[in-house]
């Protein structure tokens, strides 16, 4: 089995008296799909925000690919290979699908502001390479027919896929997905789960995702971590977590 790509060690985070995460530790193996589940307010989004540097943990450390951090910025996280989608997608609604996906490469650009402003140096070559990369990922996610479409005109489920493409175009080693299937009907959820599985299988991308639909989680993830009130309640293979009495009692019956 592959070693851990991500390790969380005793991570704690509080917001003015609200303890969002308490002494949280677990490993995410390279190449796995790990699902974070738990009731609303359990700390799942806060945890993703700590991993990619949106929040700084009050205590504990994060080890990514053998490098230890107490804090990391979102910019540095992206450079190290940590990609992210947000619960409420962060797309530019008035831009096209292609432009949104290209925006996902902004943090990977080597072109300086000066080169950009005067369209010189690496600018043109980089632009061509980025465009080719964006088009490849758009095709991979079956979005080619919508590449020139303005995002706001697309159905919600398709927009979520554009958000996935935007996060994926930077070729992250670790992809954090915050409720990629939220608000979808069952058919859209199955389709999105299929794409997430394909990303994992084709690119070997390690994925940590938050999802409330336990049926989807059990079919998709090889590793499940259950949180409640910022603490870890269970951590293991889906079957083991599913039959854990504490989890059954406290979470699997919870309707969100
Ligand atoms: N920016 C913030 N300021 C203050 N409190 C916050 C902030 N973000 C989260 N919290 C609090 O931290 C706790 C954990 O919230 P978090 O959003 O991480 O939970 P969650 O498991 O992702 O919930 P949900 O399933 O509703 O998205 C909650 O009590 C929440 O109110």
Automatic annotation (TrEMBL):
Q: Which CDD domains does this one have?
A: ABC_Mj1267_LivG_branched
> Pfam families, alphabetically?
ABC_tran (PF00005), BCA_ABC_TP_C (PF12399)
Alphabetical keyword list: ATP-binding, Nucleotide-binding, Transport
Q: Which SMART domains match?
A: AAA
Query: Matching InterPro entries, A to Z?
Result: AAA+_ATPase (IPR003593), ABC_AA/LPS_Transport (IPR051120), ABC_transporter-like_ATP-bd (IPR003439), BCA_ABC_TP_C (IPR032823), P-loop_NTPase (IPR027417)
- Please list which residues make up the signal peptide: none
Q: Does the keyword ATP-binding apply?
A: yes
The ABC transporter domain is annotated at 6-254
Which Gene3D superfamilies does the entry link to? P-loop containing nucleotide triphosphate hydrolases
Enumerate the GO terms in the molecular function aspect: ATP binding
Q: Write the protein's name.
A: Branched-chain amino acid transport system ATP-binding protein
Q: Which source organism does the UniProt entry give? A: Labrys wisconsinensis
